[in-house]
Amino acid sequence: MPKTREFTWNGMFADRAIPSSNGCLEFAGYKNEEGYGRIMRLGSSWWAHRLSYVLANGPIPEGMVVMHLCDNPSCVNPEHLKAGTVADNVHDMESKGRARKRKGSAHQNSKLTESDVIHIRTTNESVTNLAKRLGVTSTLVSRIRNGFTWKHVELNHAL
Ligand SMILES: [Zn+2]
């Protein structure tokens, strides 16, 4: 008989969150076509990233969704998850990118616009190419892609 998992972050995720080079913890259980993990627990089915958020941070605030700062649907690293409003969801990222342009672009030494950041996070283009084309370092491009900088640009999958 399988041992019942302890309903804590470690109990649910420690043995099925595989670290990847960009700091993500890839969920190693059942995933849907889009890569979102599903977990059966107490007779109901949870999105793995939402469960990870709840076990790490407590309940999701009312009316909020859990988004991936890393734009990786399979990631269950609580540090890559953030609660945001439904209005922050992926469908309005373009308009929001424009609306918030001032904040990011005003940042000291910033050569990039929020549209560039969105592009960096959504394209398959290599870090080296992007860096060359945008006139910035590849370190900066990787940091943006992995969500370590420009965190206020939220273009992540929301469920
Ligand atoms: Zn991640």
Topology:
Blueprint: H1 9-13, E1 17-19, E2 25-27, E3 38-41, E4 44-47, H2 48-57, E5 64-68, E6 81-85, H3 93-99, H4 101-105, H5 114-122, H6 127-134, H7 138-145
Antiparallel strand pairs: 1-2, 3-4, 5-6
Helix pairs in contact: 6-7
Q: What report would you give on this structure?
A:
The chain is an alpha+beta fold. It has helices spanning 9-13, 48-57, 93-99, 101-105, 114-122, 127-134, 138-145; strands at residues 17-19, 25-27, 38-41, 44-47, 64-68, 81-85. The strands form three sheets. Strands 1-2 form a two-stranded antiparallel sheet. A hairpin with a 5-residue loop joins strand 1 (17-19) and strand 2 (25-27). Helix 6 packs across helix 7. It is elongated and about 55 Å long. 31% of the residues are buried. Residues 24, 70, 72, 75, 77, 80 line the site of zinc ion (ZN).
| Basic shape | elongated
Compute the CA-based radius of gyration. Answer: 17 Å
Count the domains: 2
Q: Largest beta sheet, briefly?
A: 2 strands, antiparallel
**CATH class category of the largest domain:** Alpha Beta
